Amino acid sequence: METKLMRIAEVAKTNPELKFTSLIHLLNKDSLKECHHQLNGNKAPGILGTTKQEYSENLEGNLQYLINRMKKQSYKPQPVKRVYIDKSGSKKKRPLGIPEYEDKIIQKGLAKILNSIYEQDFLDCSFGFRPNRNCHDALKVLNMYIERRYTNYIVDVDIKGFFDNVDHKWMVEFLKHRINDPNVLRLINRFLKAGYVKDMKWYKDEFGTPQGGLASPILANVYLHYVLDLWFEKHVKKRCKGQAYIVRYADDFVCCFQYHKDAQQFYRALKERLKKFNLEIAEDKTKVIPFGRFAKENEQRTGNHKPPTFKFLGFTHYCSESKQGKFRVKRKTDKKKMRTKLKETKEWLKSKRNLKIQAIMDRLQRSLKGYYNYYCITDNLPTVEEFVYHIRLLLFKWMNRRSQRKSFTWDKFNLFMNKFPLPSPRKKVDIYNLRSHISYIQ
User: Which of 93, 259, 358, 397 lies at a CB distance of 3.0 to 4.6 Å from 242, suitable for a disulfide?
Assistant: First the structure.
């Protein structure tokens, strides 16, 4: 399958207007078996409770039965299991949809096909859920637009409940620009219409694509590629008097403008554009702010001491200066994100404090290393060190509650930390290290 996907990607790249008419044959027994082996067996099961291990017990028979149903067009995805997780920095819950295991296999195969086609079409401004593009790449490019281009205003946008409001009809219309295989389109439409189960009751889905589905990220990127990226590139930029740039990670994006009038016109036009496709912006989280090398001077003229800040990908961006006195954009961990992570750590230590101390420290060390890999970027080490300081305080508190007797004085705790040291934060990502093979940062 990989060879065929590479060929499809090559054809898609050389023929931007080509519509693929025969794709369903790629979802054959061998390719689905490969998808099965690539899936993580530790993920939560769907409504029928089937696990990877259970499905593997009769893998050949299960896959053949699946293929037969697909050929007869009798295969229908199961509704996803609706669960809710805490939303970072908010009391609200985020809905997740967990597909049945068999549906995960099909979605995995569909995602491969769609990625091979649309990865050739997606613009350089898009970063989320794409190969070889991550959050740090988006931050690097945004940093370049603000520091090295004529950026004076930022439009920080949040789309309200994007994954819950994707219009199914528009989604199919967008897919038809590149896919003319009715079997693939029918299969995707069935996934969109499968609905969800909550409290043992089935609910019909007229809109949305469930967060948690393996095909949802690529479908979301396709939707926003046509709704936002192409519109900004071909319509908005041409009507701006100054420079304009966009950086998008999934449904979270930031736009940079040279002139205030361009930023305001874009903000008004964006509302109408999203409304056409059944989307809307979250007014309380969307704003037009002065930001850039001249923002400080302009704000001082209006009586403000500092330019406003904005949040993007878990960081608060603010205007500052280098040691040489030149303008710099700096970033620090968003306070809400930090509080949420500290709260999670507190709850974990509270519930697991009676485990073996080696197990607790091993888990905490691995958690911190993962935290460092994301947040230890240029200029953010002081905030990360503050985070680690609070982790030490939480550790001291809950290790002292392993029994009725106090386990540690502060001196003994320091000796304990010498024996089980927490990893020290070090810079993991240099925001100014622009990789030469990425064309959009030239």
Answer: 259
